[in-house]
Structures are given as structure tokens and as C-alpha cells.
Automatic annotation (TrEMBL):
Residues 55-186 form the Radical SAM core domain. InterPro entries: Aldolase_TIM, MJ0674-like, Pyrv-formate_lyase-activ_prd, rSAM, rSAM_sf. Binds 1 [4Fe-4S] cluster. The cluster is coordinated with 3 cysteines and an exchangeable S-adenosyl-L-methionine. This is Anaerobic ribonucleoside-triphosphate reductase activating protein. PANTHER family: FORMATE LYASE ACTIVATING ENZYME, PUTATIVE (AFU_ORTHOLOGUE AFUA_2G15630)-RELATED. It comes from the Bacteria. Keywords: Iron, Iron-sulfur, Metal-binding, S-adenosyl-L-methionine. [4Fe-4S] cluster binds at residues 59, 63, 66. One of its GO terms (molecular function) is metal ion binding. Gene3D superfamilies: Aldolase class I. Its cofactor is [4Fe-4S] cluster.
Length: 296
């Protein structure tokens, strides 16, 4: 995990991040766009008080429909030292967050490990959640053993063609399967305390317009591989923005028909550990305001 020859994620740029940028456009200094209490995550993470989200700037995926493109691609955010990052983690606990949720952390794993060491020495004891795209390296995840309690990966695409078209990552489906396997090995079956997840894997899948049949393949794969030993979170909140606004297939919202097809399919397979979304979630109102709050 060398910042001068970065191979943290499957892009394998070998960039010297002290001098140049790789695909993710992150330097060796950590940048954070927002520190907040997030009440709209899965109920076992948000609880009553909210999940203690820390949104990191930049991303190694850069999906053309990204809902957080302001920070993932445009790089909005503020530089923080490792010591300040550790303070941020502890401040989230002081705000009574039910968990510390690291959002898009992949390209900062070495710095996050150092900050977690400091924070844990100073009393951090809430579950640490790793919220990522699913485009990871097994070696990088191995370094997180004993640091992460709950993995919250996306499983975005089942077909290489879709992964190439929307995220320029044709290897995504195979990578995501290996990554989720590794995550399950690291934290195991779900464990709860007072309705808050303490250990486990929650796989998120955002259903895209015209894609519900591909979504069913993902749901089937998860069921056949893990049954109810992981949680599935089926998301309907897709809102066209960024490059998707001019894309022929992505420029509209998801229909209720498409979403219900996938939900019914999961239910018919036998999933009981499955979160679904209800009501009008497909709106820009659910995209956080990345205003640097609580970062400095
Ligand atoms: S973390 Fe960034 S620089 Fe490193 S390999 Fe991935 S995209 Fe490239």
C-alpha cells in the first residue's frame, strides 16, 4: 500500500500520488467533502440518531450516472491530516452516531487505517462501516481485517458490457464477486445489538432504468451464494444526473413496474434479509449537500 506506486484498487495505476494523479484523481493527502449524521441509510445503520457518515472526495469508479459526482469526479472536498481524520471519527461517536460510515474510502485505505488506530486508542468503539462501489482489491481488503465491522458494497452490474458502458470497468462483475466473498470471509454472518448491525455484509443494488432483468441476475447470484447470510438492499432512488442526463437509456427515472419486478423476484426466491425503499426517494433532495460541514 504504497502512495508512490498506487495499486490500491483494480485500476492498478502505479501512480506516484505524491506527485501525480491516477484514475481516481486523489493525491496522497486525504480529502473529505462532508461529515454528517445520515438518517436515510439502511435502518440497521441509521438507527434513531443516524449513521456517522464521512464522505471522502474522489472515486476510482466514476460511473456516468454518479449521484455524488460533485465529490467523486469534480473533487469537491477539504484536505485533512490523519490526526484530524481520527478526531472526525471520534466526533461522530460523540454526536451519538450508531456507526462510523466511511463512504467511498477505497483510495484512502492506508490513511484510514492509521486514523482508525489513533481513534481506537482514544475510545472509538462504534461499528465501522465500509461503504464502497464493490470495485476493490482483495489485498486491500485484507489489510482492513479487524478494522471494519460492516461491509456495505454495491453490486452494480452482472454483465461486463454494462460495466464497461457505465463505469469503464468491464472486469467489474468478476471483481465484485471476489470482493464480496472476501468481505464475507472477514466479517461473517450478520450480528445485531439493539437493532444496529455490529458485524456483517449488506449488498446494495441500485436498479437502473431498462436494467431490471440484469438486476434479477444479481439477486439470483446473491441468493444462490449466500442465502440470508448477507443482507440485500434494493434501491429505487436512481435520479438522472451528470452524464446520464443525455444518455438514451439513463435519462429517465426507474418505473414502479421495474422496481417491483426485482423486489418480487427477491421475495419469491426466499430472501427475508432484504431492505426495500418506499415512497419518493428518486429526487435530488436525497443527495447530500457536500458543503464541508464538520470537516475542519
Ligand atoms: S486508488 Fe486511485 S491511483 Fe490508486 S490504483 Fe486506484 S485509481 Fe489508481
Amino acid at each position: 500500500m504504497n502512495m508512490q506506486n498506487c495499486t490500491l484498487c483494480p485500476r492498478n495505476c502505479h501512480a506516484d500520488r505524491t506527485k501525480q494523479y491516477g484514475f481516481c484523481h486523489a493525491s496522497s493527502e486525504v480529502e473529505v467533502a462532508l461529515v454528517s449524521l445520515h438518517k436515510w441509510e439502511e435502518p440497521c445503520l441509521s438507527g434513531k440518531n443516524g449513521a456517522g457518515t464521512v464522505f471522502f472526495s474522489h472515486c476510482s469508479m466514476k460511473c456516468i450516472f454518479c449521484q455524488n459526482h460533485e465529490i467523486s469526479t469534480e473533487g469537491k472536498g477539504l484536505k485533512v491530516s490523519i490526526e484530524r481524520l481520527a478526531e472526525i471519527f471520534l466526533e461522530q461517536q460523540q454526536r451519538k452516531a450508531h456507526c462510523l460510515e466511511l463512504v467511498t474510502p477505497t483510495h484512502y485505505v492506508p490513511q484510514i487505517i492509521k486514523a482508525l488506530d489513533i481513534a481506537k486508542q482514544n475510545g472509538l468503539n462504534i461499528p465501522v462501516v465500509y461503504n464502497c462501489s464493490g470495485y476493490e482489491k482483495v489485498e486491500t481488503l485484507q489489510a482492513l481485517r479487524n478494522y471494519i465491522d460492516v461491509f456495505l458494497p454495491d453490486f452494480k452490474y452482472f454483465y461486463s458490457e454494462t460495466a464497461k458502458e457505465y463505469s469503464n470497468a468491464p472486469d467489474y462483475p468478476e471483481v465484485a464477486k471476489k470482493v464480496i466473498d472476501k468481505m464475507y470471509e472477514l466479517v461473517g454472518k450478520p450480528v445485531f445489538k439493539d437493532d444496529i448491525m455490529q458485524k456483517g455484509v449488506i449488498i446494495r443494488h441500485l436498479i437502473l432504468p431498462w436494467q431490471y432483468k440484469e438486476s434479477m441476475q444479481i439477486v439470483k447470484y446473491i441468493w444462490e451464494t449466500y442465502h440470508d447470510d448477507v443482507y440485500l438492499s434494493l434501491m429505487n432512488q436512481y435520479t438522472p444526473m451528470y452524464k446520464a442526463l443525455s444518455h438514451p437509456k439513463l435519462k429517465r427515472k426507474l418505473t414502479t413496474f421495474e422496481y417491483n419486478k426485482v423486489v418480487d423476484f427477491a421475495s419469491d426466491l426466499g430472501f427475508t434479509n432484504c431492505y426495500i425503499q418506499q415512497g419518493k426517494t428518486a429526487t435530488k433532495d436525497f443527495v447530500p449537500n457536500f458543503n464541508g460541514e464538520n470537516v475542519l
